[in-house]
From TrEMBL:
PROSITE patterns: POLYPRENYL_SYNTHASE_1, POLYPRENYL_SYNTHASE_2. This is Probable solanesyl-diphosphate synthase 3, chloroplastic isoform X2. One of its GO terms (cellular component) is chloroplast. Its cofactor is Mg(2+). GO terms for biological process: isoprenoid biosynthetic process; plastoquinone biosynthetic process. The keyword Transferase applies. SUPFAM superfamilies: Terpenoid synthases. PANTHER family: ALL TRANS-POLYPRENYL-DIPHOSPHATE SYNTHASE PDSS1, GERANYLGERANYL PYROPHOSPHATE SYNTHASE. It comes from Olea europaea subsp. europaea. Belongs to the FPP/GGPP synthase family.
Length: 417
């Protein structure tokens, strides 16, 4: 087998090293360079090797499959920016349409979610039913199914495995547990149009319900018996806590740098999405290069998604948001629009550092963010990460599932069009 040489791909505290034919990978851990990440130099595959064709054969899967080791850039050497919604005239997409190809998978997941939580404690079950019953987009498990179906053709799998399906359930349980805890920390009264768990049952039960779901998901994760996926998802739970600590320690900090903000976004949002997509690729048994590109897709899409959410905190009405506009800023949580606006307007620093003690100061700060170009520059950042996400998908063969993954990135940007 011909070896593929790759640069170290770094993000968070993980550095991935890949070799051999891509049938396996090993992961080592290291700290990353924040400056390199801020400049967008994370994780590009070594371009010094020439394009080759590799054969990978596993008896349980079927005949050998041939695939290219060209990087996405080599496959599309002159690819222009793929997402420019200002120039595109697009019909509004819907998640229902984007997830049509995995609708049956999601129906099965919805039926299983409540039963797999367990019935040991009626109060905890009732709390779980409250948030599961509130619906939600199910975006993360949908990503698992879309990636699973987009990658299974590469190695000749005819159907999704039970591991694919269990992974989707685990991911949604972890996401739900994080929402329960987030609502406690943020003292939120409403979630998806319904009262939050802590509002109905109290903080003690909400914290225990979240802990229970984290523990239950970990048990199901261990039973998958795939060490690489176990490490991947376990890191996500650690990242949630790291993100909350970083956010709490930087409230009202006007010296917060963009790269620090992006790290926090990774911990709180992109880490789970990236693990969801890579875990699905691993269970499809694709080579390590493809699984890493799928991880990068999830990471870049997750970062773009969080930046868009932070923009909407300034541009949507309180009715659309379900909370007052600028609520993150009011709590001292400085996001991309604020960080960019602080570079232009010194008055904004004075208002934030006063912690909005004067009447009307929050409205003034929101007005400055809007008038100083903070929103526009944050939109550019969201588009930059979205473009990277779509480029990461070039490792997949054309299919309706890859198309849906691309369209999901565009759908996210359309929220701020």
């Amino acid at each position: 087998m011909t070896a593929v040489a790759c640069n170290n791909l770094e993000f968070g505290r993980t550095r991935f090293d890949f070799s051999a034919c891509g049938c396996s990978s090993n992961a080592s851990f290291d700290r990353f360079s924040v400056r390199n990440y801020a400049k967008g130099t994370v994780g590009n595959v070594n371009r010094s090797h020439k394009a080759r064709k590799l054969f990978c054969f596993r008896p349980e899967i079927g005949p050998p499959r041939m695939f290219s080791t060209k990087t996405p850039e080599a496959l599309l050497p002159d690819t222009p920016p793929v997402l420019d919604l200002k120039k595109e005239s697009r019909s509004p997409a819907s998640l229902t349409n984007l997830f049509e190809g995995v609708a049956e998978d999601l129906l099965t997941l919805n039926k299983n979610l409540q039963s797999i939580v367990g019935a040991e404690n009626p109060v905890l079950m009732s709390a779980a039913e409250q948030i599961f019953g509130a619906g939600g987009k199910r975006m993360r498990p949908a990503l698992v199914f879309l990636v699973s179906r987009a990658t299974k053709e590469i190695v000749g799998l005819k159907e999704l495995t039970k591991e694919h399906r269990r992974l989707a359930e685990i991911i949604e349980m972890i996401h739900t547990a994080s929402l329960i805890h987030d609502d406690v920390l943020d003292e939120s009264d409403m979630r998806r149009g319904k009262e939050t768990v802590h509002q109905l049952y109290g903080t003690r039960v909400a914290v225990l319900a979240g802990d229970f779901m984290f523990a239950q998901s970990s048990w199901y994760l261990a039973n998958l018996e795939n060490l690489e996926v176990i490490k991947l998802i376990s890191q996500v739970i650690k990242d949630f806590a790291s993100g909350e600590i970083k956010q709490a320690s930087s409230l009202f900090d006007c010296d917060l740098q963009l790269e620090e903000y992006l790290i926090k976004c990774y911990y709180k949002t992109a880490s789970l999405i990236a693990a969801s997509t890579k875990g699905a690729a691993i269970f499809s048994r694709v080579d390590s290069y493809v699984s890493e590109q799928i991880y990068q897709y999830g990471k870049n899409f997750g970062l773009s998604f969080q930046v868009v959410d932070d923009i909407l905190d300034f541009t949507q009405s309180a009715e659309q948001l379900g909370k007052p506009a600028g609520s993150d800023l009011a709590k001292g949580n400085l996001t991309a629009p604020v960080i960019f606006a602080l570079e232009k307007e010194a008055r904004l620093r004075d208002i934030i550092e006063s912690e909005f003690c004067d009447t009307g100061s929050l409205d003034e700060a929101v007005g400055i963010v809007k008038s100083c170009g903070g929103i526009q520059r944050a939109q550019e950042l969201a588009r930059e990460k979205a473009n990277l996400a779509v480029q990461n998908l070039q490792c997949l063969p054309p299919s309706s599932f890859r198309f849906a993954l691309e369209e999901l990135v565009k759908y996210n940007l359309e929220r701020i069009k």
